[in-house]
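Figure 2 data, in text form.
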Amino acid sequence: MFLPKYPDIPTPPPAHTHTPADPALVRRTAPQISISPGAVAAVLVGGVVLTALLAAVAVTAISVAIAAVVLRAMLRDQHRR
């Protein structure tokens, strides 16, 4: 009943035909990356320093928490008297 009407014009041929390239020319090599020993040493030293700082922050946080618990206990004992 309601069927679409398509034009009678044939589809035109594609304007651009794709020609495959030579596979030998398409192959690309990865760029060479050279890492100097100084860069490796800098990264290692930076990692050691950051780890030491993180450990220092953790130890400080634990000691502050222990001091807070001790002070709280001392103040609680003082208020009971």
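Caption note: The mean pLDDT is 84.
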